[in-house]
Amino acid sequence: MFKNYFKIAFRNVARHKAYAAINITGLAVGIAACILLFTVVKYELSYDTNQKNYSSIYRVVAQDDYKDGVEYTPGIPFPALDAIRTSFPQFTTGSLLASYGSQVSVLGRNASNANPDKKFIEETGFFFADPQFFRVFDYKWLSGSPAVLSEPNTAVLTQKVAENYFDKWENAVGGFLKLDNAATVKVAGVIQDVPANSDFPLGIVTSFETAKANAKTYGYTPDYGNTTSNFQLYTLLPQNVSAENVNKQLLQFSRELFKEEKTFKRTCSLQPLKELHFDSRFGSFGDHTTSKSTLWTLSLIGVFIIVMACINFINLSTAQAVGRSREVGIRKVLGSNRLQLFGQVMGETAFIVTVAMVLAVAIALLCLPYIKHIASIQEPLKLFNFQTLLFLPALFIVVTLLAGLYPAMILSGFNPALALKNKISSATVAGISLRRGLVVMQFAISQVLIIGTIVAIAQMNYVRTADLGFNKEALFIMNANADSIVHSGQEAFKQKLLQLPGVESVSFSSDVPSSESNWSGNFAYDHKPDEKFNIYRKAGDEDFFKTYGLQIIAGRIYTKSDTTNEIVVNETLVNKLGVKNLNEVIGKQMRSGRSDWKTIVGVVKDFKTNSLREDVKPLMLMERKDRYSVTGVKIRSEDIPKTRTAIEATWNDFFPQYAFTGSYMDETITKFYQQEEQLSLLYKIFACIAIFISCLGLYGLVSFMSLQRTKEIGIRKVLGASIQNIIYLFSREFTILIIIGFLVAAPLAYYIMDSWLQNFVFRIKISAGVFIIAILASVIIAWITVGYKSLRAALRNPVESLKIE
Question: Euclidean distance between the first and final Cα of the chain, in Å?
């Protein structure tokens, strides 16, 4: 029986090649898109699931409640580690401190090697950890054990880093590294490489005691008033302990620990490891976080694409059912029952889906290397794994049932008498209303994606062209340690750079104007008690304003000094203080933290202190040489590459101890929005796929309609109908259906994209123009698709049309 079904299916496909090609192509593209989206979603959901205690590991995070809002931080003060271990001795708690953009010099076997050949800038940095961290997290040790991290000046490398530094990982143990030209450490262990799908990109792990011994370089302080998001605690809960109960205990613990805080209320709580990759409030040590709403969006797009492909199949199958009515009638007369006919149609569907599935896997394999352009996945992905091998059969069953169930029910239910008398029509099988509804659904989905694409493109164009309040063009940024070696040579280095023909100005600072840095703290204004909100800080020399194009709108910039004597504040701070006239703050004094009172000498026009996802922060700018780790160089646009080469040579002359690293400011800002750019590209791709599948379906339906209405068209032409009348006859119905689809899609698309735009404080408004473009694009695309086939039908000689039986 199954062999017979296969033969009949093959013959029907061969007999109707055009419709089979449309069905197979639509299904193949839809299934391929679904497979790729499944691969991306599965990968994002797999972060750190390789950890043995995945469901029992938690991060200790903090929430600060201010009078005007809430701030979240994944870090807690350094001394809180011992306090938590004392208060919760039943838990295993490990610490992890990150140091980003650090330099590593490979000294080999000689700890006093003054001229190392190998120097690396580790952009993802390295970590300081204690032995307990490796009792919370499970990593395979190739050499050594967690105990080696109990001593100062010891380090552990991953296999890949060890091979990069020492050629063979076995050679690494016993070798020496110099970190940031400050700490010399001995390699005492090697662990297996960390998977790429981890929010803990371990490469170099140094003992936490080393950070304590180099407190100034790595920011260690026993002060409860200082918190950095780079210092995080992770705890392993016993199986019989619930996080909810621990959070209640942490609430009381927080009251005792932070009782000295007057301007805000800080509360510690546990965040599950399984939420780490998806919670942008706290972030992670990984290169990105992905919201679960984004993964739901990707999943829904995959479902929509599959549904659209199945709609094509249903539409064409029900339309073709009329042409197969006699076949069904004869089979029933010869003894076939409804179940057998149902099985035959489902067999044909399964055959087409199988062919489409094979083609889809081939398409997915070809597209897999390009996944990195639409998702933050840099490692090569494997299409065939356990989950995918389960997903593909499930997808096959779902698509076969979704595409074949209704056509099989319709075809197997034909009355044999009516079928043999040729009295079965589209109306009698109730196919017209269904097909109309499915076409409406198809174009509703397409228009949701079209509107999403237009909004995403418009927002990203706004981001790229937004006024940031400073000049980001032709700015070359170099990073180094804020140490005595760098500081002693900065002034001479600056003067040498200014002698280069292509250099316009140079500034040293703790940070660039717009970054992801959030150096903040409490402050007081005009000798009053501390304000109920934090102030954010950036340190820069007197040329900071000129180099970055910042505008002073009241007062002046501070005078040159190595320490903080005068400060400049931004408009946002003045407004939050309730001061109406900017000039009123000039001459007033302000104190940040426990520092002395400093005089405000100027107000700078607001610039974007962080990405456009965030509000402009209340900010103070000051001179503080011991914080200068960033060199900003404004380059003239005549010959940027030549000037960059000259800057590098000058750097190597002045700071041979440090590897040269530099980037352009506009490139750095672009990286802020990498995920949004990827989502915008994803919308473009899948909107095109949706339109392609819709057009395939429309083309198939119009082709079938023109074949079924050949005589009608001939009669209309004989009675005087023009070519335009015939084209209008075909186009009118589909245009109405597209408009109905738009009415369904518009509110849904508005809701989805308005929710996405909420991620940006600075954003576009979704105007009526977006929807007008979407509906016009849909109608024009449909007309082009319908027009070609209807024009051929309209141009056909009516004499030939009327001869067709």
Answer: 34
Whether 442 maps to a domain, the answer reads: yes
Question: Do 21 and 88 lie in a common domain?
Answer: no
Same domain membership, residue 97 and residue 195: yes
Distance separating alpha carbons of residues 68 and 264, to the nearest angstrom: 10
Q: How far apart are CA 708 and CA 784, in angstroms?
A: 21
Tokens representing 41?
Answer: 């979603």
Considering the domain boundaries, does residue 644 fall inside one? yes
3-state secondary structure of 466: coil
One domain for residues 493 and 612: yes
Q: Above 70 in pLDDT, residue 431? A: no
CB neighbours of residue 245 within 10 Å? 10
The closest alpha carbon to 23, from 13, 15, 32, belongs to 13
What angle separates helix 768-795 from helix 723-757, to the nearest 10 degrees? 150
284 falls within a domain: no
Is the predicted pLDDT of residue 430 greater than 50, yes or no?
no
Q: Half-sphere exposure of 486 toward its Cβ, with a 13 Å CA cutoff?
A: 24
Number of domains in the chain: 3
Sort residue 101 into left (φ over 0), alpha (ψ -120 to 50) or beta.
left
The answer on 525 and 556 residing in a single domain is yes
Residues in the chain, total:
805
| Nearest-angstrom CA–CA distance, 664 and 471 | 12
Q: What is the pLDDT of residues 642-685, one digit of tens each?
A: 999 999 999 989 888 888 888 899 888 888 888 888 888 888 88
d(CA 711, CA 729): 14
Domain end call among 241, 276, 311: 276
Tell me how far apart the alpha carbons of residues 571 and 761 are, in angstroms, rounded to a whole number.
17
Are 619 and 494 members of one domain?
yes
Taking alpha carbons only, the member of 436, 503, 500, 505 closest to residue 470 is: 505
- Residue-wise pLDDT tens digits, 729-766: 777 777 888 889 899 999 999 998 998 898 888 899 99
**Encoding tokens for residue 459?**
């927002």
H-assigned helices in 129-235: 133-136, 159-166, 169-172, 208-213, 215-218
Q: Cβ–Cβ contacts within 10 Å for residue 734, how many?
A: 22
605 and 689 co-located in one domain: no
Asked if residue 194 lies in contact with residue 116, where contact means CB atoms within 8 angstroms, the answer is: no
Give the integer Cα–Cα distance in Å for 412 and 337: 8
Is residue 471 in a domain? no
For residues 633 and 733, membership in a common domain is answered with no
**Residue 752: how many CB atoms within 10 A of its CB?**
17
> What global pTM score does this model have?
0.84
Residue 206 to residues 3, 95, 190, 209, 409, Cα–Cα distance (Å): 66, 12, 12, 8, 68
Is the domain of 725 the same as that of 783?
A: yes
Structural domain span for residue 565: 481-657
- Residue 566 identity: E
138 vs 423, residue with greater confidence: 138
Q: What values do phi and psi take at 115, rounded to 5?
A: -130, 70
User: Given 603, 623, 657, which residue is the final one in a domain?
Assistant: 657
Select from 519, 532, 524 the least CA-distant residue to 590. 524
Q: Determine phi and psi for 309, rounding to 5 degrees.
A: -65, -40
**Tens-digit pLDDT profile for residues 105-130:** 898 888 887 778 788 888 777 899 99
Neighbours of 346 (CB within 10 A): 21
Q: State both tokens at 110.
A: 């000689």
DSSP labels for 747-781?
Answer: HHHHHHHHHHHTT-SS-----HHHHHHHHHHHHHH
| SS3 of residue 290 by DSSP | coil
CB 779 within 8 A of CB 738: yes
